[in-house]
């Protein structure tokens, strides 16, 4: 199986400057290639493809030896493939009748990654293997950059990427042939219900807490954003204020990822079969649709409450949790089943009666038919588990 490993880089000041120049030159290459495609199609109606632009790289590098010529040829090809992928995704959306979203030019804050497609071609992981205490990655035009390797790399390194996050630099390794870490069977099965009060509630009645990292940091973020709003555009103080806001958001993101990793690992360790709702988080967090009143105004549509719910769902990290859970389940040899979430929170787990009135409050479920009372999330998790086991049995019988 394929797996990625991400490590913090510790570049010197000169190496950090070189990494910044590398990122900027690749951004300029991306934007120039995009403008080339647009101009040729606008003037001649001809579609320029990746092969055409890749063939021109040799001349671009020769004409700019101190700029584009400094960097790895293969990394520049990867940047052109990135643009080609954006165009293919655009045409796929057009054919599917979705909102197209034509590829855009990349500003300085919207291009943060450079990829080397092959270890050994313009880059080298563990470039000083005999160093007694540190790991290094060698990048053409940058040199040997120290890596804070906090865990062992498994499998064979295929691609190497450099990513900038705020003021930090990271190296991301994509590895093939990573051995699966199979866990011993437990014989346990569980249905899980995603929530805001608790991140996950299992059919066994266990609640995994939702730390609400964004809510905890809200006051500090608000103060940093107010400070940013007072700074004059283009000034050094504004850049520092922007960096403070970005650092707070980055910390929340790291905390959230750490939390969902631990929650997913706990579930995978304890259960052989895990059933979850097939949630479409993007659709669930769309803003409330305005409702015109016919007199030039709008009717109340609960937009403020919906906005708060959307913020809570995104703060909980449902999408990241389900993605990480699927990866950990695959690696551990666990079975993961997704079921339709419709009516799982309104159906009684005892008698099967489905009604909106069964959900008394956010936490209390009381069946209007049989009187069964339970925690609402636990009741939903039991229904999810039953639906998943039914799907599993049906697939086995087919």
Describe it.
The protein is α+β, with helices and mostly antiparallel strands. The protein folds into two domains: 3-176, no CATH class; 189-291 and 302-397, 2-Layer Sandwich (Nucleotidyltransferase, domain 5). Helices cover 44% and strands 20% of the residues. It contains ten helices and 16 strands. The strands form four sheets. It has a seven-stranded antiparallel β-sheet with strand order 2-6-7-1-5-4-3. Helix 1 (13-44) packs across helix 3, helix 2 (50-63) packs antiparallel against helix 3 (73-96) and helix 6 (236-270) packs across helix 9. The radius of gyration is 26 Å and the shape is globular.
Secondary-structure topology with pairs:
Elements: E1 3-10, H1 13-44, H2 50-63, H3 73-96, E2 113-116, E3 123-125, E4 135-139, E5 143-148, E6 156-165, E7 168-176, E8 189-194, E9 198-202, E10 207-209, H4 213-216, H5 218-229, H6 236-270, E11 273-277, H7 281-284, E12 291-292, E13 298-299, H8 303-316, H9 318-332, E14 335-339, E15 364-366, E16 373-375, H10 376-397
Helix pairs in contact: 1-3, 2-3, 5-6, 6-9
Please give the order of strands in the largest beta sheet: 2-6-7-1-5-4-3
Known CATH architecture of the largest domain: 2-Layer Sandwich
Number of domains: 2
Q: What string, H for helix and E for strand, traces the elements in order?
A: EHHHEEEEEEEEEHHHEHEEHHEEEH
CATH class of the largest domain equals Alpha Beta
- Tell me which oligomeric state these chains represent: single chain
Describe the largest sheet. Answer: 7 strands, antiparallel
Class per helix and strand makeup:
alpha+beta
CATH third-tier fold name of the largest domain: Nucleotidyltransferase, domain 5
Question: So what's the overall shape?
Answer: globular
Number of strands: 16
Q: How much helicity do the residues have? A: 40-55%
Distance between the termini: 28 Å
Uncertain spans, ≥5 residues at pLDDT below 50? none
Instruction: Tell me the number of helical segments per DSSP (H or I, 4 or more residues long).
Output: 10
Q: Determine the strand fraction and express it as a percent band.
A: 15-25%
Radius of gyration: 26 Å
Mean model confidence by pLDDT: 93
């Amino acid at each position: 199986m394929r797996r990625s490993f991400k490590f913090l880089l510790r570049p010197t000041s000169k190496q950090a400057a070189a990494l910044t120049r590398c990122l900027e030159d690749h951004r300029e290459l991306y934007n120039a290639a995009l403008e080339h495609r647009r101009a040729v199609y606008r003037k001649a109606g001809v579609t320029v493809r990746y092969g055409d632009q890749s063939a021109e790289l040799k001349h671009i590098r020769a004409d700019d030896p101190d700029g584009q010529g400094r960097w790895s040829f293969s990394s520049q090809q990867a940047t052109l493939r990135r643009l080609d992928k954006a165009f293919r995704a655009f045409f796929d959306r057009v054919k599917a009748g979705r909102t197209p979203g034509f590829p855009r030019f990349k500003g300085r804050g919207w291009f943060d990654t450079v990829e080397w497609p092959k270890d050994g071609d313009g880059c080298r992981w563990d470039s000083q293997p005999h160093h007694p205490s540190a790991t290094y990655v060698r990048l053409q035009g940058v040199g040997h950059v120290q890596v804070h390797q906090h865990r062992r790399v498994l499998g064979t390194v295929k691609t190497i990427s450099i990513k900038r996050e705020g003021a930090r630099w990271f190296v991301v390794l994509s590895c093939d042939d990573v051995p699966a870490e199979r866990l011993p069977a437990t014989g346990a099965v569980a249905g899980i219900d995603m929530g805001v009060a608790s991140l996950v509630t299992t059919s066994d009645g266990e609640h995994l807490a939702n730390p609400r990292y964004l809510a905890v940091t809200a006051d500090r973020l608000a103060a940093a954003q107010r400070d940013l709003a007072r700074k004059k555009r283009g000034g050094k103080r504004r850049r520092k204020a922007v960096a403070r806001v970005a650092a707070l958001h980055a910390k929340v993101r790291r905390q959230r990822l750490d939390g969902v990793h631990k929650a997913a690992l706990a579930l995978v360790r304890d259960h052989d079969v895990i059933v979850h709702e097939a949630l479409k988080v993007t659709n669930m967090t769309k803003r409330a649709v305005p409702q015109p009143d016919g007199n030039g105004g709008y009717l109340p549509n609960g937009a403020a409450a919906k906005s708060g719910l959307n913020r809570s769902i995104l703060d909980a990290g449902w999408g990241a949790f389900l993605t990480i859970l699927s990866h950990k389940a695959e690696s551990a040899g666990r079975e993961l089943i997704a079921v339709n979430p419709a009516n799982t929170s309104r159906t009684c787990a005892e008698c099967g009666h489905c009604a909106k009135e069964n959900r008394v409050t956010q936490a209390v479920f009381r069946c209007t038919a049989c009187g069964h009372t339970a925690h609402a999330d636990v009741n939903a998790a039991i229904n999810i588990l039953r639906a998943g086991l039914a799907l599993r049995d049906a697939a086995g019988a087919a």
